[in-house]
Amino acid sequence: MKKKDLILKWLNNEQLTKQESEAFQQMDAFDSYRRIADTAKKIKPPSFDTEENLENLKSRLSDRKTTNQKNYFIVNLMRVAAIFVLGIGVYFSFFHQYTTTIATIAGEKTTIQLPDASIVALNAQSSIKYNKKNWVDQRSIALNGEAYFKVAKGEKFDVETTSGTVSVLGTQFNVKQREDYFEVTCYEGLVSVSYNDKVRKLSAGNRFTMIEGNIEETASTLLLPDWKNNRSSFTSVPFSQIIEEFERQYNVTIIAKNIDKTTLFTGIFVHSDIETALKSITIPMRLQYKIDTKNITLYRE
């Protein structure tokens, strides 16, 4: 037998004949082969559980698949969100370019003309918004504060506030919407007032008032709201409302010390002279006042 075949047979742990064994031992490299074999016997191969490793492999593949599915879902979700945000942006940029906003600050009044020639006069610290593009089809204004309207005849005209909606066809009226205060006065024509899902009709010379949840309908002899003549008038209104209106008209801060601001006040103060105005609201209430630049303190001696 050739040496090569003899060595291969020995490495494969095949049984050697006596003659083959003697021939193998007589080889020059016999000692080297034997040392290699002895060392190999001392080396323990790592244990390998075929079933366990198969399950681990399946688990890793499943996790990778789930991760890929999640990543695919997240990517698609981000795409949808991007399209949604883009759509919202386009919507608002398209419609807001036709939205007109008019606002006044404390101590300021202004008068504007609407696209149909209707007139709106804004009292101090008030604002309106309307869509000039759709004005012919929908005459609607969002009001925050107080405004006097002289409406040109035509389709329905709506004034929307957080307290209620006022609807007319063509008339003159005043709407005042402040915190815990909602007032509508009709000076000409007929006004429809929607408040708490109830609709009330106001004819010329009538007023609807809601103060802190209390509703009252009264008559009015005025031809215009008093603020149009640079004065504010009140009938049985909590003193807190008078203080807030005073601050709007004169752009000041009023500090009330030891005063019951729920006390009802009836009276008038002018917008042109702060000293005269202060006397008008303090003398009936038996109060004193002190002016310090933009701060006014009301107190009782």
TrEMBL record:
Keywords assigned: Membrane, Transmembrane, Transmembrane helix
Location of the FecR protein domain: 101-191
Domain of life: Bacteria
Stretches of the chain forming a coiled coil according to its record: none
The organism's taxonomic lineage, starting at the top: Bacteria, Pseudomonadati, Bacteroidota, Flavobacteriia, Flavobacteriales
InterPro entries: FecR, FecR_C, Ferrdict_sens_TM
Species, as recorded: Aquimarina addita
Membrane-spanning ranges: 72-94
Protein name from the UniProt record: FecR domain-containing protein
Residue ranges occupied by any Protein FecR C-terminal domain in the UniProt entry: 233-298
